[in-house]
Description:
By secondary structure, the protein is mainly beta. The chain has strands at residues 4-7, 12-17, 23-30, 34-40, 51-56, 60-66, 87-93, 97-102.
Amino acid sequence: MLGLRADVPRGELVWDIRLLERHGVRAYPFGATGLLDLECAPRAGASEPPRVRITTSMPIRVVLRWGKSATTQGGVAPDRSSSLPVHEKVVTLIAASSTEVLCE
């Protein structure tokens, strides 16, 4: 439901942000010892850039994705369940830290 996909060996978390209301997760486990707090502020629409707060106990790369695409590669119209994010922002936290991100 929150669109989180962890790739622990690569040290990366992908977050497909689709909900419009405030949402997130506290103490999300990442690997054997890592923990993340993730929070997204409410948005007026799916194409509005999200405002995200990330707190981590270890270095991590977070890929934030939002918005929808009308077509897939090759121009084929997808069904509703296969709409693809069209905006992406990569945040790299090099140590245990907390940061706010405005995706523009």
